[in-house]
């Protein structure tokens, strides 16, 4: 049966990506826990909120703060630690980078990963070929140095999902469709086949590939001994408290310990011992079928939005049909740890870290040697988590660190109105997490992480995405992308963010630099959006130019000097009049809250994967789903970036940014 892709609200057109994000972002949290908006309301009075750093939100719409741009720019230059010349925000078919920098295409969808990989032929795609080529929709990017070199290492890249309408030739078409008495153009998908599904499955997962800088330019090393593709069919192991539990035993795996594949890998991380962490996010959309409401797994799957049915995989593979194999879904939603230095190793799903829609999994070695991993649950009204290992990191024995994430304590955050964060342990038998309340063991608690966090009274957040600890300052930055579901009655003069379309950034200060602490402090670094529109309530500093503000913070990175860089997801011509990109954000001193635009993506794309090499003289960026705008199809994408050839489709790609003549980025 054909699928219609297009408008879902009145006459507003939505691309397939936007529709999927809407379906994934319904907001499954029906608990009575307070929202972050409620906490902000109670913490900040109207006077203090508008009288301090957020005063720019009160500027009248009849007097733009950009009227004094030249003075603001001068002040920004005098207070900023970033000395690049800011680029102009906008929308077009190309990417743009700050003057004095080169942004070179390093790897594109379909590029060879091995010396004997087949050449990319978009008209003759096969699962076998795709399994030996760079995957689709690159998201997280990490760099792991080899021999301690900043110019030679392994690039690890997540491949989050596929866009069939711009990926497969002769598959999507534009037709006039009548719905609710209205006729409008929509993109219509053809009938899926097993062959197409198999290609999609091979395009998911991740890539490990050796790269080297030669004459100042990065290039892949195709005969690198560590090169590897991970897909939705790669054999993996469940480890930690859930491994072997009855709720993860399936028809294909009666042991409950062997899993095939990882899917919807969004952000991720690289550990101090050089392993690659892959975060499984919106896994629910790959499952079809139905469960009866009295089925034991119905409640927790519903809380996760499963089965979502956005993909057709369940038509060809029973394991993705919850009515045929309901335990299979419990084997996804985890953090996967990969040893990139052993291409024959079996990746491990670390169940102690919890099961939800992980946006990221950035870790840091605490001052007592324990390792702390932060992760956001990317859905409206869901939560912020951290995991603290039981064991400690051994810098002299890599093998001793390989299973640190199998034992430890998972915490969920409660943000209090006095500016305190309470990290509540998610442990079976403590508080409400008992058999009487449906949690029979720690395995149950972890499989049902969302329900456990509900029961503990965690604070509902506005789509927690990437969370990045800063080793230099003891601060932790939480990207909160948006929450357009927030009701009008939840907003007031102190928190004018009903239908919060632009998101904000929360700054957590860990007590005395102890990232494992159970009490922290929090503040708002930025409320995003256009500061020239008073009702938006943005809080960028007055030194931020008309190009420097942004909406929808998504991922972030900390450079070698401890500076914050933020990438976005959702800026477009309709929402903000600009594409997504990377902004350099001041977090300290007089310039705090000042932001400058460094790089912007082509039309239809999302900016992902900001990551630096050891010395921060290379900035790796991932351009995801370029060309996915309007009535885009394979034959007529919104851009043909990065090749700009009629015989090549638009292709997601990783970009390596370097400074002309060398030197640190920024």
What does this structure look like?
The protein has 666 residues and is mainly beta. It has a single domain, classed as TolB, C-terminal domain (Neuraminidase, 6 Propeller), CATH 2.120.10. Helices cover 11% and strands 30% of the residues. It is built from ten helices and 34 strands. The strands form seven sheets. It has a nine-stranded antiparallel beta sheet with strand order 17-18-20-21-22-27-26-25-24, with no helix packed on it. It has a six-stranded mixed beta sheet with strand order 12-11-16-15-14-13, with no helix packed on it. Strand 13 (265-270) and strand 14 (276-280) form a beta hairpin. It is globular, with a radius of gyration of 23 Å. Residues 1-11, 45-72 and 491-496 have low confidence and may be disordered. Pfam families: PhoX. This is dTDP-glucose 4,6-dehydratase. It comes from Sinorhizobium americanum.
């Amino acid at each position: 049966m054909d699928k219609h892709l297009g408008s879902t609200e009145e006459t507003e057109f939505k691309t397939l990506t936007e529709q999927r994000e809407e379906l994934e972002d319904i907001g499954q949290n029906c608990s009575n826990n307070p929202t972050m908006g409620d906490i902000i309301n109670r913490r900040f009075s109207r006077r203090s909120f508008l009288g301090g750093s957020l005063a720019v939100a009160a500027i009248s719409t009849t007097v733009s703060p950009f009227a004094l741009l030249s003075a603001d720019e001068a002040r920004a230059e005098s207070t900023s630690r970033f000395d690049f010349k800011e680029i102009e925000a906008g929308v077009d078919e190309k990417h743009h980078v700050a003057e004095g920098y080169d942004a070179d295409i390093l790897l594109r969808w379909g590029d060879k990963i091995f010396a004997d990989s087949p050449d990319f032929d978009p008209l003759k795609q096969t699962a076998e070929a795709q399994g030996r080529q760079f995957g689709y929709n690159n998201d997280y990017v990490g760099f792991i140095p080899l021999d301690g070199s900043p110019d030679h290492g392994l690039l690890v890249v997540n491949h989050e999902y596929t866009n069939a309408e711009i990926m497969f030739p002769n598959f999507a078409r534009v037709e006039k469709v009548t719905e609710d008495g209205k006729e409008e153009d929509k993109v219509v998908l053809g009938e899926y086949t097993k062959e197409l599904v198999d290609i999609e499955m091979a395009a998911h997962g991740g890539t490990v590939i050796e790269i080297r800088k030669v004459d100042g330019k990065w290039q892949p090393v195709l005969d690198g001994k560590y090169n590897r593709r991970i897909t939705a069919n790669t054999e993996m192991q469940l480890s930690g408290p859930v491994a072997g539990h009855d709720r993860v035993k399936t028809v294909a795996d009666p042991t409950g310990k062997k899993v095939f594949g990882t899917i919807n890998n969004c952000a991720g991380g690289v550990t101090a011992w050089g392993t690659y962490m892959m975060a499984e996010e919106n896994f629910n959309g790959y499952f079809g079928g139905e469960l009866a409401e009295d089925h034991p797994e119905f409640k927790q799957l519903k809380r996760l939005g499963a089965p979502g049915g956005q993909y057709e995989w369940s038509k060809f593979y029973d394991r993705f049909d919850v009515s045929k194999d309901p335990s299979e879904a419990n084997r996804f939603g985890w953090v996967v740890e990969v040893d990139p230095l052993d291409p024959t190793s079996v990746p491990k799903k670390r169940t102690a870290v919890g099961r939800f829609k992980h946006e990221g999994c950035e870790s840091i070695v605490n001052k007592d040697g324990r390792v702390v991993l932060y992760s956001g649950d990317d859905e409206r009204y869901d939560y912020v988590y951290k995991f603290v290992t039981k064991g400690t990191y051994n810098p002299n024995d890599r093998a001793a660190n390989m299973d640190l994430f199998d034992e430890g304590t998972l915490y969920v955050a409660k943000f209090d109105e006095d500016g305190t964060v309470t990290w509540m342990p998610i442990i079976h038998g403590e508080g409400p997490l008992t058999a009487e309340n449906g949690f029979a063991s720690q395995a149950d608690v972890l499989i049902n992480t969302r329900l456990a966090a509900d029961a503990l009274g965690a604070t509902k957040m506005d789509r927690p995405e990437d969370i990045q600890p800063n080793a230099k300052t003891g601060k932790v930055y939480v990207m909160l992308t948006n929450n357009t579901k927030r009701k009008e009655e939840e907003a007031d003069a102190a928190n004018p963010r009903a239908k919060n379309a632009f998101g904000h950034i929360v700054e957590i200060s860990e007590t005395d630099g102890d990232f494992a602490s159970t009490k922290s402090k929090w503040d708002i670094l930025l409320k995003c959006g256009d500061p020239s529109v008073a009702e938006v309530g943005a809080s960028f500093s007055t030194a931020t130019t008309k190009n420097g503000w942004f909406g929808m913070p998504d991922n972030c990175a900390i450079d070698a000097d401890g500076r914050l860089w933020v990438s976005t997801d959702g800026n477009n011509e309709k929402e903000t009049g600009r594409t997504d990109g990377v902004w350099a954000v001041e977090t300290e001193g007089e310039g705090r809250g000042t932001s400058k635009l460094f790089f912007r993506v082509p039309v239809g794309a999302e900016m992902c994967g900001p990551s630096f090499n050891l010395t921060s003289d290379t900035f790796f960026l991932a351009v995801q789903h370029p060309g996915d705008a309007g009535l885009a199809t394979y034959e007529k994408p919104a851009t043909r970036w990065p090749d700009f050839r009629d015989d090549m489709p638009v292709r997601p790609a990783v970009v390596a940014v370097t400074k002309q003549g060398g030197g640190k980025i920024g």
